[in-house]
Amino acid sequence: MRSRISGPAGSTSTRVIALVVPNLTNPMFQYWANEILLVAASEDFEVLLVATEDKPARLEAIARTLVNRDIQGAVILATHRTDASALLTLREARIPFTFLSRRSEYVSADFVGIDDYAAARQIAEHVLGHGVKNPATVVGPRFSTASAQREKGMVDALQSAGLQVLPEQRIATDLARDGGHRAVKHLLSLPARPDAILCGSDEISLGVMEALAEHGIETGKDIVVTGFDGLQHTTSPLIGLTTIVQPLKEIGATAARHLFHRLRSGPQDEHRSVIVPHTLHVGRTCGCGSVGKTAAGKDT
Fold first, then answer.
1. With b meaning 16 or more CB within 10 Å and e meaning fewer, what string describes 196-229?
2. What is the torsional sign of CA 100, 102, 104, 108?
3. Whose CA is closest to 158, among 201, 198, 206, 202?
4. What pLDDT digit, counting tens, does each position of 8-48 carry?
5. DSSP 8-state secondary structure symbol assigned to residue 169
6. Burial annotation 80-119 (CB, 10 A radius, 16+ → b, else e)
7. 7 contact partners, CB below 8 Å, separation of at least 6
8. C-alpha triplet 215, 220, 223: angle, nearest 5°
9. Are the C-beta atoms of residues 157 and 300 closer than 8 Å to each other?
């Protein structure tokens, strides 16, 4: 296959890659987008940024648009783990793509992200050290492999310690503060209030803490709350969130570099998964007295 990135003049009609994100409101996606833009600029490429709002039909429409515009490649953050139709549209058009954070269970491609399962177990085990007895989990949509693995890691760690996580206390919601607010409304309606809420994203955890505060419940004192992603503002002393920190700049840049490698090498290379190390940031929201401690991610 002739390289799409470096063929002779006229061999491709664009020098544009696409970045497909779930939404444009989550700061995590903005961090990744910035790094991908920088790498693309260094390759003299432009980036078309599109959002799916986590709707499969929207992702399929975007895939058809990318084919029609002769986009040369894509970094995809919005993959639905059990829906392969949009990805197959790109594959049939020989448009290479790299998965970032999420991946498909049915279509293979290069992947860059952290070990979500191991990270989730690590933060749950830290919470167990605070003597929790009635935990709840609130993650993003389960059609995301990242959210599904985070929920599984948390629940497995809690169950290994003898704690039952009831189905009504395992919530999947939007990756936004509104999702956290809705989760708290549900959890506070249960007969027994959870003493810990383990969240699958920092944005969800911020919504959770805001909603708890509206009910006079103090995070870190009355209830344990944890996040996942390690956004700069959430790990600051002002908020002091206990969370898993992803090296966001490194992940975004690595995903972009892998896409450009694929554009140069063609499909003959085997697909590669790059697992980037995470860290545990210990703040106040878990009940710890000190803020800013970190622990490296555990090997699995």
1. bbbbbbbbbbbbbbebbeeeebebbeebbbbbbb
2. positive
3. 198
4. 344 445 799 999 999 988 899 999 999 999 999 999 999 99
5. G
6. bbebeebbebbbeeebbbbbbbbbbeebebbbbbbbbbbb
7. none
8. 55
9. no
In this structure, are strands 135-139 and 97-100 parallel, antiparallel, or unpaired?
A: unpaired
Identify the pLDDT of residue 8.
Answer: 37
User: Encoding tokens for residue 199?
Assistant: 């969240």
> pTM for this structure?
0.91
* Contact of 165 with 137, CB cutoff 8 Å: yes
Are 181 and 207 in contact, with CB atoms under 8 Å apart?
yes
Question: What pLDDT does 300 receive?
Answer: 37
The residues, any chain, with a CB within 8 Å of residue 248's CB and separated by 6 or more, are 28, 31, 32, 35, 229, 230, 231
Q: Tell me how far apart the alpha carbons of residues 3 and 12 are, in angstroms, rounded to a whole number.
A: 10
- Which DSSP state fits 202? H
Closest to 109 measured CA to CA, from 74, 143, 136: 74
Could you give phi then psi for residue 203, rounded to 5 degrees? -65, -40
Structure tokens at 274: 């790059």
